Amino acid sequence: MQQEKKIRILLGIRQGQIGGGESHLLSLVENLNRNFFDPVVLSFTDGPMVQILRKMNVPVFLIHTLKPFDISVWGRVRKLLREQSIDMVHAHGTRAASNLIWATRNLSLPLIYTIHGWSFHDDQHFLVRKLRIWGEKYLTRKASINISVSSSNQQTGKKEIRSFDSVVINNGIDLEKFNPSNSFPDVRNELGIDKEKRLILFLARFTAHKQPLTLLKVFSRICRQNPSMHLLMVGEGDQLPEAYKYIDVNQLQEYVTMCPFRQDVPAVLAATDIYVLPSLWEGLPIGLLEAMAMQKAVIVSDVDGTREIVRNLENGIMIPVSEMDIKLGDSLIELLTHRQLCEQYAVAARQTIVQKFSAEHMTRQIEEIYFQLTDNK
């Protein structure tokens, strides 16, 4: 039954490039009950996500900034909220929250802050880390409700911010879209990858914390002795030029295929055998959930949110970050050699997602928060 006035929600995101937070936002928008909710999206950079949303007939606005707490854009954000008659704001990530907080408070609008991963990390300079913890403390205190995408994400917040409180809502995957039983275009043929090769996939941003260069170095050591394997790396980011340079210097062009971000992620996953994510940290990695939903064997680093998805040697392989250089190569060879084991992990991976991480369940939980805040206004 349709209500008289829909709740108009502005969803804020830091960028238009496709990453974990952006995939989460797309799933949320796709699954929102439009009888009750009218979504509007604000992105702080342009990119493929913006085009996808516009094809879905979702209003999208761009206010460009690469900075958190960028006071120069706050007035424009406030003007947008008023012009679009926004009832509440849902910020995804630190940059979005920090550039929406002033306007929401000025207009007395509820603000939901979803933490997809904290902006502070152990490897940062002491003063940088302290400053970022202060920033997160301010945002989480001023938000109406905080959402953590994993229990470990929540525990990290509580450890560093004494007053922190949140609701845990796991990321969810569209199980119809990411279904291995569907038919997909032949990505291997498109990219010129031999169909007989055992294909390893890295699909993530080329940033230091995702460790694409570590994966390349490990793969370089083992690929010539195992010519049946091939590595497909899909993504963009500041370490991409260094990755290309490493491939050229080590003459890996025959063994590695590079590709920018693509919108047909299910088709890319369907073409591959093993998904690798050697991150230094994660909130609750959507790329990993997507790979497991597509029934792929996974090899991941043993870090925070990932531990809530992968059970070592049951539905995938987990490697301590400190041992990634040593054990990643051995794990790849093991799965490529023992196909039955690879398939066993893949089947268990799909079952995990079906049971615990659906986009529909995630969206219904978030909708309950929207209703709650509306009742409290």
Q: What structural class results from the helix and strand content?
A: alpha/beta
CATH superfamily of the largest domain: Glycogen Phosphorylase B
Q: What is the CATH first-level class name of the largest domain?
A: Alpha Beta
Approximate shape: globular
Helix percent reads 40-55%
Side by side, the strands of the main sheet go: 3-2-1-4-5-6-7
Tell me what the CATH architecture of the largest domain is.
Answer: 3-Layer(aba) Sandwich
Number of strands: 13
In short:
This protein has helices at 20-31, 48-55, 74-83, 94-106, 126-142, 151-160, 187-191, 212-222, 240-249, 265-270, 286-293, 324-337, 339-356, 359-376; strands at residues 7-13, 37-43, 60-62, 88-92, 111-115, 145-148, 167-168, 198-203, 229-234, 256-259, 274-277, 297-301, 317-319. With 377 residues, the chain is of the alpha/beta class.
Key words describing this protein structure:
377 residues, alpha/beta, Rossmann fold, 7-stranded parallel β-sheet, 6-stranded parallel β-sheet, 42% helix, globular
